[in-house]
Specification:
The complex is a heterodimer of chains A (about 475) and B (about 200). Chain A is about 55% helix and about 20% strand. With about 475 residues, chain A is an alpha+beta fold. In chain A, a hairpin with a 5-residue loop joins β11 and β12. The two termini of chain A are about 75 Å apart. The C terminus of chain A is likely disordered. Chain B is of the alpha/beta class. In chain B, the strands form two sheets. Chain B has a five-stranded parallel sheet, with helices on both faces. In chain B, α5 packs across α7 and α6 packs across α7. The chains are: A alpha+beta (about 475), B alpha/beta (about 200). At the A-B interface, α8, α9 and α10 of A face α1 of B.
Chain lengths: ~475, ~200
């Protein structure tokens, strides 16, 4: 009820009353001006009224009011001095008119200026809202914080809330507070600009990702002002996460499909040690049944069982590592171990397809900062491509692999003596879904190139001058002796 | 007679050693090779032996090796073992005369049964070889008398058939029996049957 009355009051009653009061005041001034002979310049009060009025009203209305006031001033003069126009009063009237005109002019100027200011402020607020970027200012000696509407919104505070440093820190994610405080100590004369990313923990357990750019403007020796721009990058971050996840899903899918191709031969590889275990245990049983017991043979049997179990477990470990959905974290990996474990997984297939592999490892066993499983995936993918490209009846199938140190890089060259690539297809290899295989997905090389790029390396594909395919991988090395190449 | 010998050719050392221990535990001699090349294709003809062969040893094909041995005329029973047995492969191996085709991991009893079967075959092959050796020592007349005698003819029937005196026939018959080392006439009949079937076979 009260609200309805309020709206009614503001919308229809208030302007009428304001107008009536205004008219009454002006008429009062007019009557005093005309009929009282006070020895002061009454029309000055018109100026007061105009100034008051101009505060709330548009320029046109101010013009109207000014014109009315001027008219009344002239009228009062004419009514009081119609018999003696050219007196000193005429000069008074003239001065009054000039005063009203110049006031109106000043009001106009002021109004246009403030209009412009309001317009640009509105524009600023809107663009801040649009770009999700807020501004903030911190005066270091007074510890006073001022911020824009958008900043308040980003920090999830009411617009009327008076900002303080404490209420900013209250919103920062607990895990990121240290980071933020550390970043704020990094100002120096050379780099007055600091950029920091952190998370905000909002009241409803929502997490916001923000990026803040802060500039330090020194004022005198000790004090300074910090001016910051803070941007809400939650959407961007979430997109990025989704993209990373999609990519790692794809990489994982490829790993699983690679394992699928290896399944039959892997079964063979595990069967070998299992056979050895079975036969050894049966033989041990037979030796035990004899007298005198031949402990030497039984020891050998047990040793064989142990070795077999170890080998089977090693292979399973490799499969597990490849099949597991692991985060793409990187560690220092010796280059030769990447190959030896890839070969362990592919041993069966290599044997079955009669391909001879000539591996010239790196004698220094250089290490690189990499994700072992991902690089194994690349090696297995490339070997699979090579093996599957060989014609079934080709004699003397051979793949030679060399690992060389070339400056700061490890260069891995894989050559085969198969049919090689068709020259016109060279540019399409890294395109998704491009394949030359009958049942291929066309994802292998695309994923290889993604993985290599993720390791800041490069992959080149082509044919040997003597025939056959050639793949050159180049990766950053981290050789021993503490020399780290960046 | 010497101890029977079991030969294993497999590139997997663990498998070789395991089979070796198993074979020794049943009182047989064992010899293992990591590749076909190492096994220089000499077969000891004085004792029964049996070959356990991986279908794929390094880059060599065991089935091809089986054919090579056959062409060289080396008679040795072969038991194939393989990690990936497919039907076509096993049919080919069995047709070429393999004793068995076992897929890893196999039961040790199956392998031992196959080994025993192989050694038996080898033994009878050795016996046949010896018989043929002995038969070669017979003269033409002795062979004639022997084949007629084992077909059931009496000495005098043989004498009239060959236009020989009874006493000569008796001497030839006794000589043949002695050279063939037959302890009885019944054994001589069996020996003859083996020889005839091997010649027809």
């Amino acid at each position: 009820m009260y609200t309805i009355f309020n709206i009614y009051w503001i919308n229809s009653v208030k302007p009428v009353i304001t107008a009536l009061v205004l008219i009454a005041v002006i008429l009062a001034i007019f009557f005093v001006d005309t009929f009282c002979s006070i020895n002061i310049s009454i029309p000055v009060f018109y100026i007061v009224v105009i100034i008051f009025y101009s505060n709330k009203e548009s320029l046109q209305r101010v013009y109207g009011l000014s014109a009315a006031c001027m008219l009344l001033t002239v009228l009062a003069f004419l009514l009081g001095h119609y018999n003696n126009i050219w007196s000193i009063e005429f000069a008074h009237c003239f001065v009054n008119l000039v005063a009203i005109i110049s006031t109106t002019f000043l009001i106009r100027k002021n109004k246009l200026k403030s209009e412009k200011l309001r317009y640009s402020e509105e524009l600023l607020t809107q663009t801040q809202e649009l770009s999700k970027t807020g501004s903030i200012r911190f005066d270091s000696p007074t510890k006073q914080v001022t911020w824009s509407h958008e900043t308040a919104r980003i920090f999830d505070y009411d617009l009327t809330k008076q900002p303080t440093l404490a209420c900013i820190y209250r919103r920062v994610h607990r895990a990121d507070i240290v980071n933020l405080k550390e970043a704020l100590t990094e100002f120096s004369d050379e780099s007055p600009l600091v950029s920091v990313q952190f998370r905000l923990m909002l009241s409803n357990d929502k997490i916001k990702y923000v990026c803040m750019l802060i500039k330090r403007v020194p004022l005198g020796d000790t004090s300074a002002v910090y001016i910051g721009a803070i941007q809400d990058i939650t959407k961007f971050k979430l997109n990025e996460f989704a993209k990373t996840k999609a990519q790692s899903d794809l990489v994982h899918a490829n790993r699983v499909s690679v394992l699928g191709e290896l399944t039959t031969t892997l079964a063979h590889d595990i069967n070998q040690p299992l056979s050895a275990i079975t036969i050894n245990s049966e033989a041990a049983g037979r030796w035990l049944a004899q007298s005198p017991i031949n402990t030497h043979e039984i020891k050998q049997n047990l040793l064989g069982i142990n070795k077999g179990a170890q080998k089977a477990s090693d292979i399973i470990q490799c499969i597990y590592a490849l099949a597991k959905k692991s985060p793409i974290d990187k560690t220092l990996v010796p280059i030769n171990s990447i190959f030896s474990e890839s070969f362990a997984l592919m041993d069966g297939l290599i044997n079955k397809t009669d391909v001879a592999i000539d591996y010239q490892g790196n004698s220094a066993d250089c290490t690189l900062f990499a994700n072992k499983v991902a690089l194994q995936q690349v090696i297995i993918n490339l070997l699979l491509n090579s093996i599957q490209a060989f014609k079934h009846d080709q004699a003397d199938k051979k793949i030679s692999i060399t690992v060389q140190i070339n400056g700061p890089n490890i260069e891995i060259t894989m050559k085969d003596n198969g049919p090689g690539f068709k020259s016109d297809s060279a540019s399409k290899f890294f395109n998704a879904f491009y394949t030359t295989k009958k049942n291929g997905m066309g994802m292998g090389l695309t994923i290889c190139s993604t993985i290599i790029k993720d390791h800041n390396g490069s992959i080149k594909i082509g044919n040997n001058p003597t025939g056959g395919a050639c793949v050159i991988l180049s990766l950053k090395a981290q050789c021993d002796g503490g020399e780290v190449y960046e | 007679m010497n101890k029977p010998l079991v030969i294993v050719i497999d590139d997997e050392q663990a498998i070789r050693e395991a089979i070796g221990s198993l074979v020794r535990s049943v009182g047989l001699d064992f010899c293992g090779y990591g590749s076909i090349h190492d096994f220089n294709a000499t077969v000891d003809q004085t004792r029964p032996s049996c070959l356990i062969l991986d279908v794929r040893v390094n880059l060599d094909n065991g089935l091809d090796f089986q054919n090579n041995l056959k062409q060289l005329g080396l008679q040795i029973p072969i038991i194939f073992i393989t990690g990936y047995g497919d039907i076509a492969m096993s049919v080919k191996a069995m047709k070429a005369g393999a004793i068995d085709f076992l897929t890893k991991p196999f039961r040790e009893q199956d392998l031992l049964d196959a080994i025993m079967q192989g050694l038996q075959k080898s033994q009878s092959h050795l016996k046949l070889l010896q018989l043929q050796q002995k038969y070669k020592q017979l003269s033409m007349r002795e062979r004639e008398v022997m084949s007629m005698a084992v077909s059931g003819l009496l000495n005098k029937q043989i004498a009239s058939e060959l236009n020989l005196s009874l006493i000569t026939v008796k001497i030839h018959r006794a000589n043949a029996s002695k050279k063939m080392q037959a302890s009885s006439f019944a054994e001589l009949v069996r020996m003859n049957e083996m020889l005839v079937s091997s010649m027809n076979g």
